[in-house]
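Example 311, ligand adenosine-5'-triphosphate.
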Amino acid sequence: MVSAGDARKITIAQVLVYELRVRDAMSKPPITALPSDSLREIQKLMKRHKISGVPIQLGTKLLGIVTIEDIITALDQGHIDDLAEKRMAQGVITIRDHFSLVRAVAEFERHGFGRFPVVDSADRLVGVLTRGDITNCLMHQLEKRAEEAIAFEAAALASRAGDDLARRIVIRAPVRTGDYDSAGKVSQRLRQVLRERGIDPDVRRRAAIVAYEAETNIIIHSLGGEVTVAVDSDKVVIDATDVGPGIEDVNQAMQEGWSTAGRLPRELGFGAGMGLPNMKKCSDVFEIKSGNGQTTLVHSEVFLRKAASTP
Ligand SMILES: Nc1ncnc2c1ncn2[C@@H]1O[C@H](COP(=O)(O)OP(=O)(O)OP(=O)(O)O)[C@@H](O)[C@H]1O
Ligand SMILES: [Mg+2]
């Protein structure tokens, strides 16, 4: 069974494989051998560096590759003292250091190899990439981003404490990624606060819808963020911020029915693609700022006397 947190990680990992490049994940510098080295020497090299494939290089020219499978065959068939040039695989398929990891994963699947020598745009051998390198790189990036999200929450709480009094902030709530159980908590509290302040029921309802959609979007689509609500003399102001990964095409995201929500949020009843359009409908002022790999900022204002002034 996949927990909410896992599902979120898979989605973020899917984003990361598009953003990250082969050069971010590869092992470098490459450990190489000469065509005049024996397979036995290469076996020792593999053991020493705990690697399973060695590109064979002369000068800057990549001539072939010797893998652990070649070594096992050589031991089995008694030619472990042969030179690399006699036994190496030639016509090696390489990948470029600027390829995205999603492309690299596709290449692994297409060719079934355990590793690729990596070449730069000048065809120089610059590293070696294994599936394990990709996994390590993704785990490292996920950890890094999770730490950034936590630091963001702490900094936001500390730096804006003074602001709260000046701006009449009534709610400041961190919202955690994948925390489906908490969906609706901010908006529920907001309803209560606005009721206590004697705010018009229609304004209350609209502000609560905006807050609800904002918090669920942070839970489902972001790495974590915060919702703040301020009550001014003439309006309720709702701001939602998060630490990314952002929205590539905001106009598309604003369309009714457009959603990137995965299987789990859909099973939980989210992902109709109606959140942002509803927020806009309920707001008197609505702004959204985002971009690929950026934070998403949503700003909404619901005017206080609007309902009362309508006949
Ligand atoms: N804070 C955010 N960070 C990243 N992407 C977001 C964020 N908010 C919205 N999006 C993107 O915009 C799309 C549309 O959002 P919207 O709230 O309209 O629909 P939804 O969340 O997918 O479904 P629903 O709100 O109906 O449950 C989302 O599927 C997602 O791709
Ligand atoms: Mg939504």
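Summary: Residues 213, 217-218, 220-222, 242, 246-247, 253, 258-261, 270-277, 296 surround adenosine-5'-triphosphate (ligand 1) (CB under 6 Å).
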